[in-house]
Design a protein that fits this description.
The protein is mostly beta strands and 366 residues long. The protein has one domain: TolB, C-terminal domain (Neuraminidase, 6 Propeller), CATH 2.120.10. Helix content is 6%, strand content 38%. The chain contains two helices and 25 strands. The strands form six sheets. A five-stranded antiparallel β-sheet has the order 1-4-3-2-25, with no helix packed on it. A four-stranded antiparallel β-sheet has the order 5-6-7-8, with no helix packed on it. Strands 9-10-11-12 form a four-stranded antiparallel β-sheet, with no helix packed on it. A hairpin with a 5-residue loop joins strand 9 and strand 10. The chain starts with a helix and ends with a strand. The relative contact order is 0.16.
Length: 366
Amino acid sequence: MNKKSLLLCICLCLLASLIGCTIDLNQPTGATPGSQAQPTSPASTTSAGTSWGGLNLNGRLVYSTYAVAEIPPATRIQMLNLATSENKTIFRVTRNAWVYYLSVAPDEKSLVMAYAPPSEPNTEPVTSLYTLPLEDGGEPQLLLDPNLSSDRYIQVEWSPDGKYIYFVHYNLQQQPANETVPHFNIFRMSYPDGSPEKIIDHGFWPRLSADSSKLVYISLDPVSGVNELFVANADGSDAHEIPLSDPVASQILDAPIFSPDGTAILFSAPTPAAAYEPNWLDRVIGVQIAQAHNVSSDWWSVPIAGGTVTRLTHLQTIKLFASISPDKKHIASESGEGIFVMDPDGSNLTQLLLEPTISSPLNWIP
């Protein structure tokens, strides 16, 4: 992808974030070659305001965003201190490099990210896994080198016990003709020196339970493109579908996560009336997976054993991805408009940041 193509895709994605995606904060209660990356400097610290001061939030949110005022847009990894409202840049890339996904290590000293380093003009960026110090600056260090130039790594999660890294892989040139979407697989490898092992076929959006014993993910039928919610042991064994008994647009599921108490699964999906139909923007940028990230959606909850689905929010927004607060009292979520926080049942929803340019999942750390 050359610089013009990359810029076009970024601008189109930003446009998708801004059109038809309004968060209603008055909703009913209860109910996603160049130059080297530059280290941050003291000048990259700003105040985000204190609109959430009454919630007594603590900890930090780590996420990436891109600056559309710069050409090409520059990606930055930000750290927002919820107690002080300080928002500082801890890493900045230049030119056509891009941060697709990041996960902070349980020891809070580093992060792992799906990252495409700067590439030569008119060449396809190669996304792989890199580590980066969380606060000390420095350069990304390659963690997993692709075997083939067509290999791609798009999602990566650390297990809460710090023993494993889970990631999603696909190959651009290994999609059978009868499959409508790429062949996504979930791998894991012990950190820091383990070898990758495939544990789930046709799966993506892996998230681990707080005790690192269970894995929730989205299973994707590569022919029909239908999504299903699955849970398995941490090693991929005993994988089985979580049945959804109530009407929900279940063919479009996204970004699952274990609830703070571990008894339910939260996931993103549109309402049944908003069944997905590709629009002009989807066709232009080739949207194929994570469709709820590009269609107006809400947060839903279902018991881990399956059953009745409960709608938690009435947001009708895009790019939903959640992270649990360290004290398990709140859930932070990114969206097409920025970052908001809510109680585990979806109540007391409060906007933290109006920031439509968030480009990677957020992490809530102490």
